[in-house]
Amino acid sequence: MASHWKIPHLPDDIVESILLELPVKSLLRFKSSCKSWCCSINDPDFIKSHLHKSSTDISRQKVLFVTFEKFSPFTILSNDKIGSAEASLTVDSKVMLLDPPIQGFLNDVSANLKVSSCNGLVFIKNDTSMMLWNPAIQKYKLIPSYNMPLLFWTYSLFGIAYDSLAEDYKDSRVPVGFRSMYQHPVSLSGTVNLIARGNDSECFVMSLDLSDEKFIVTPAPIKDGS
Amino acid sequence: MVKLKSNDDKEFEVEEAAVIQSEMIKNMIEDGCATSVIPLPNIDSKTLIKVIEYLNKHINMGKAAETGEEDDLKEFDEQFVNMGWEELFDVIMAANYLNIHELMELCCQSAADRLKNKSVRAVREMLKITNDLTEEEEQEIINDAPWAFEGPEIDDTVN
């Protein structure tokens, strides 16, 4: 058999081009093929390219349902939180139902549970703590809460976004005054966005840019026909 | 027409519209360096024939959507990558050298599809990879994500 084509003899950049097309589960497994594959797959630049490819390839995008219903007294779907993930999860279906990684985290499930997602990472906040979860690699981290006062905890804008300048993820936990906030924060190009209601009960979109930590307030669009 | 010469001294004439899908040759033509035969010292005639077959088929790719030839092109691509590993890697190397982005994507995707559900043992055997990890290193990788090594889809066969 000709020996010139064996993969160890293929240049690293070509091996990487092939690895880039694989889903995360296969990559985690193939890390144990040999040293050079392990190095390639662990390389931060490779991870960034893989994420970029996943976020630009619509066939790799998934709608995630994080299900809380079994912990909730109300067995209705409205307790399931919706997130989206650009990560290439190994399921053929477009929509997937996920159990959160630690069940204790959700024991005190309540209306204050907030879920948002960014680049395939899912950020969950309950009444007392925060968690960052990567369903593609099935790992999570609890984010220290530094004993924040209860009011701060209730009336803050929580969310996560990717700061492309600092090339890092930042979480926000900014007190925003006594305004009621609806829905879940949405992460978009380095900002965390939320619909809020001011004292005059007018709705607006509040965006926090995590690179310079500045707020932008945009009046909420008026619904058609109202 | 542009003349290409493989490393086993065979010459091929290709329409300019087809050959400029290669960024490398496109740049050579724009720089006026393609006046006579373009020698391709990294590509043998067998591989070059495959690459030219692809270039000729994809010549009007931009128009395919308008003329409803997309399905035809998709079918061609599926047939095209139906080749052995050795040949596939030769085409990948050629596509990389000639800088033909779409062909590179197509072939890398095909390679990935063949590997996707394979077990580590099968991948090593298919691609003749020598495992140079120590037993401890290997176990550490498995312990880090044991679920990635399990599942009904994982296929231990070599083909």
Automatic annotation (TrEMBL), chain A:
> Which SUPFAM superfamilies does this entry report, sorted A to Z?
F-box domain
Q: Which InterPro entries match?
A: F-box-like_dom_sf, F-box_dom, SCF_F-box_component
Q: Where is the F-box domain?
A: 4-50
Which domain of life does the UniProt lineage start with? Eukaryota
Q: Which Pfam families does the annotation name?
A: F-box
PROSITE patterns listed in its UniProt record:
FBOX
SMART domains per UniProt: FBOX
Q: Known PANTHER family for this protein?
A: BNACNNG10540D PROTEIN, F-BOX PROTEIN CPR30-LIKE
* UniProt protein name: F-box domain-containing protein
Automatic annotation (TrEMBL), chain B:
Protein name per Swiss-Prot or TrEMBL: SKP1-like protein
| Entry's Gene Ontology cellular component terms | cytoplasm; nucleus
The subunit field of the Swiss-Prot or TrEMBL record says:
Part of a SCF (SKP1-cullin-F-box) protein ligase complex.
Q: Which family does it belong to?
A: Belongs to the SKP1 family.
Domain spans labelled SKP1 component POZ: 1-59
Biological process, per Gene Ontology: jasmonic acid mediated signaling pathway; protein ubiquitination; SCF-dependent proteasomal ubiquitin-dependent protein catabolic process
Q: Where is the SKP1 component dimerisation domain?
A: 102-148
An annotated Gene Ontology molecular function = cullin family protein binding
Keywords attached to this entry? Ubl conjugation pathway
Q: Does the keyword Transcription apply?
A: no
Q: Any idea what job this protein has?
A: Involved in ubiquitination and subsequent proteasomal degradation of target proteins. Together with CUL1, RBX1 and a F-box protein, it forms a SCF E3 ubiquitin ligase complex. The functional specificity of this complex depends on the type of F-box protein. In the SCF complex, it serves as an adapter that links the F-box protein to CUL1.
UniProt entry tagged with the keyword Transferase: no
Q: In which pathway does it act?
A: Protein modification; protein ubiquitination
One short Pfam name that applies is Skp1_POZ
Q: Which InterPro entries match?
A: SKP1 (IPR016897), SKP1-like (IPR001232), SKP1-like_dim_sf (IPR036296), SKP1/BTB/POZ_sf (IPR011333), Skp1_comp_dimer (IPR016072), Skp1_comp_POZ (IPR016073)
